[in-house]
Write a structure and sequence with these properties.
The complex is a heterodimer.
Chain A: E1 3-5, H1 6-20, E2 24-28, H2 44-48, E3 53-55, H3 60-71, E4 76-83, H4 91-98, H5 101-104, E5 114-119, H6 134-138, E6 144-146, H7 151-163, E7 168-173, E8 180-182, E9 196-199, E10 204-208, H8 212-224, E11 230-234, E12 237-239, H9 243-253, E13 256-263, H10 268-279, E14 289-293, H11 302-308, H12 312-324
Parallel strand pairs in A: 2-3, 2-4, 4-5, 5-7, 6-7, 10-11, 10-13, 13-14
Antiparallel strand pairs in A: 1-8, 6-12, 9-11
Helix pairs in contact in A: 1-7, 3-4, 8-12, 9-10
Chain B: H1 5-30, H2 45-51, E1 59-61, H3 68-72, H4 77-84, E2 108-109, H5 118-131, E3 138-143, H6 150-161, E4 166-172, E5 175-176, E6 179-180, H7 181-184, H8 193-197, E7 201-205, H9 209-224, E8 230-235, H10 254-261, H11 265-275, H12 281-304
Parallel strand pairs in B: 1-2, 1-3, 3-4, 4-8, 7-8
Antiparallel strand pairs in B: 5-6
Helix pairs in contact in B: 1-2, 1-11, 1-12, 2-9, 4-12, 5-6
The chains are: A alpha/beta, B alpha/beta.
């Protein structure tokens, strides 16, 4: 199968959906001729025109609100926010409006919009350009939250998100953006709400989100040399969460490490811990471990940044600790 | 097109229906029948004048102030009272405050509790009609309190750069919640802001239903023919406090209220109808009695209706 990058898979998913359905439009800053901060809309304005690939003013409350208003009348906006930090400017329209409108309209209109956010660390982004804020959105009934980790999954999940009739927060970790992988050229979808076992194993489960999935796989390789069989599970969707898949894995292995880029306090990992404590308690042979960013804003300086960011070595360390326990 | 006698009578009927509804809705809230109501009494000429003559497919984005727009667009007072009481037969079975209700089939767009957040939503409605190739317009209702939200600027700016089919209709009742306009709004004029967006702005007497209707018709015609948005500042006054949840008055005086009550929009049209002999006192009484009965029946229906079962809370969270 041909291989393309995560970034290219996103562009391909949007282009295919825009060809399939004329109601799908893109709204965001610099998404037209410039091609978006993420580079994922490059070329789309040429094929679809400026009525469907709409450059927006730097006016997040305005255009996020307008996307919600348009979605309520059947338009299917893909809203590119760029940095995940930027969606916080429009939190009112996302949380108070988009998440609640299906309830308000009693199901007679809904908000089939996708809000694309670029999450996590990139070199020296600093405190306001490095956040992983997925847990804030996963907390809100009415929103769906997706965080794909591979080129294959991002194409299939973005297509599902675009076709979904509820608002979807689509988290794209910067750490996997340049990753290459096999992606079918034909139309396919990955359903929302289905976790994936990224690597099968028997001794310990690593439940990893987004950019931590490849790091967890690398840690699993390292542990294989020590005769420890590590299973890596990628939830892919945070809400609705495929709890059954996570429970099944931990019931099998009896040990669990949860890892995400976001800092741990109040992070999504806590939700998974609660689920496992409730449903897999009697299978546990060791305490559940959580690994995430340290409790600090993400600094610019490489020396400080690398200390705050979780990496493969943190996962390896936690795995060894749990196996020894 | 000038208003016919039939139009004037219909405007009167709608304003009177809104007035009788508002009186009862306010009174019942004060009695504790439901948690809260942000009355729109005194501002009836705005929903009536704006909504008269709209196509069913034209969209109206409502605010939390009063329920005149849904009534003017044809939502029954029975449904609305059931909503105020949060009872089972109301639009969302009682899940949301009825003053944010949506009725897409009648062109009523649902609001939000955040004052001013409705403006970008209305802009999105206008964008959707444009993308769908329809020549329908959207009317964005909001109050003077909303014009200091960034959402006002962001929404109006976006609509103007894309020349969307929308009318921004500001009901200026001179108080943002309980704080007077001068203490909250720089520049001394809302309509003056139109100039900075390069669109027409009109300041009008919001208690003159005929004037409201005629001004809005011009703005609608502009929007429909692709000439873009208009900002209308409509000066009016609410006769009741910001909400019944904290019904204290600080800045508003009895004298000011009395002055505005003397400019009652309903009485103003009633006097004209009588003077020009389009209606008799007897006919007006008959209309009023019919409306009072409609309102009383709606209240009785709402009071007798059951609450929805608790499970209804989990309906329609996702599409």
């Amino acid at each position: 199968m041909r291989e393309i990058t995560y970034r290219e898979a996103i562009t391909e998913a949007m282009a295919e959906e825009m060809r399939r359905d004329s109601k799908v439009v893109i709204m965001g800053e610099d998404v037209g001729d410039f091609g978006g901060l993420t580079g994922t809309t490059i070329g789309l304005i040429v094929e679809f025109g400026s009525d469907r690939v709409m450059d927006m003013p730097i006016s997040e409350c305005g255009f996020v609100g307008a996307a919600v208003g348009a979605a309520l009348q059947g338009i299917r906006p893909i809203v590119e926010l760029g940095l995940a930090d930027v969606i916080l400017v429009a939190m009112d329209q996302v949380v108070n409006t988009a998440a609640k409108m299906n309830y308000f309209y009693d199901g007679r209109s809904s908000v089939p919009a996708v809000f694309r956010i670029w999450t996590g660390f990139r070199r020296s982004g600093g405190p306001q350009q490095s956040q992983s804020n997925e847990a804030m959105f996963a907390h809100v009934p009415g929103l769906k939250v997706v965080m794909p980790s591979t080129p294959h999954d991002v194409k299939g999940l973005l297509k599902s998100a675009i076709r979904d009739n509820s608002p979807v927060i689509f988290c794209e970790p910067k750490g996997v953006y340049a990753d290459k992988g096999p992606v079918p050229e034909e139309d396919y979808t990955v359903p929302l709400g289905e976790a994936k076992v990224a690597r099968e194993g028997d001794d310990i489960s690593v439940i990893a989100l987004g950019a931590m999935v490849p790091k967890a796989l690398a840690a699993a390789d390292a542990l294989a040399g020590e005769r420890v069989s590590v299973e890596v599970v990628d939830p892919r969707t945070l809400r609705p969460l495929d709890g059954d898949a996570l429970i099944a894995s931990v019931r099998k292995t009896g040990r669990a490490v949860i890892v995400h880029e976001a800092n741990t306090f109040g992070g999504f990992g806590g939700e998974i811990v609660a689920l496992l404590a409730d449903k897999a308690f009697h299978s546990l042979r060791a305490p559940i471990k959580r690994i995430g960013g340290k409790e600090a804003p993400v600094p610019v300086s490489p020396s400080m940044e690398s200390a705050v960011v979780p990496g493969e070595s943190n996962i390896v360390e936690a795995l060894r600790e749990l196996i020894a326990a | 097109m000038p208003l016919s006698v039939k139009d004037l009578k219909e405007l009167y009927r709608i304003m009177l229906l809104i007035r009788r509804f508002e009186e009862t809705a306010f009174e019942k809230a004060l009695q504790g029948a439901y948690a809260n109501y942000h009355g729109g009494m005194g501002q009836e000429a705005n929903p009536a004048g704006v909504c008269h003559g709209l196509r069913r497919t034209d969209m109206t984005m409502i605010t939390h102030r009063g329920l005149g727009v849904p009534i003017a667009r044809g939502v029954s007072v029975k449904d609305i009272f059931a909503g105020l009481y949060a009872k089972e037969p109301s639009p969302t079975r009682g899940r949301i405050p009825v003053y944010h209700m949506a009725e897409p089939s009648l062109g009523v767009l649902g609001g939000t509790s955040m004052v001013g957040s409705v403006i970008p939503l209305a802009v999105g409605s206008a964008l959707a009609t444009r993308l769908a190739g329809r020549d329908d317009v959207t009317i964005s209702f909001f109050g003077d309190g909303a014009v200091n939200r960034g959402d006002f600027h962001e929404g109006v700016n976006l609509a103007c750069v894309r020349k969307l089919p929308i009318v921004f209709f500001c009901e200026n009742n001179f108080y943002a919640k309980s704080t007077p306009l001068a203490a909250t709004t720089a520049g001394g004029s809302i309509v003056a802001r139109a100039k900075s967006y390069g669109i027409p702005g009109e300041r009008i007497d919001g208690n003159d239903v005929v004037g409201v209707h005629e001004t809005v018709q011009i703005a609608i015609a502009r929007a429909r023919t692709g000439e873009g948005p208009t900002l209308i500042e409509c000066e009016t006054y609410r006769w009741t406090p910001h909400s019944t949840a904290g019904d204290r008055e600080f800045a508003r005086t009895e004298e000011e209220l009395a002055q505005w009550k003397a400019k009652c929009p309903v009485m103003r049209l009633e006097k004209r109808l009588l003077k020009e002999r389009h209606m008799t006192e007897e006919e007006i009484r008959t209309v009023d009695e019919g409306i009072k009965q409609e309102v009383a029946e709606a209240v009785a229906f709402a009071e007798a209706a059951p609450y929805a079962p608790a499970d209804a809370a989990y309906e329609n969270i996702y599409a």
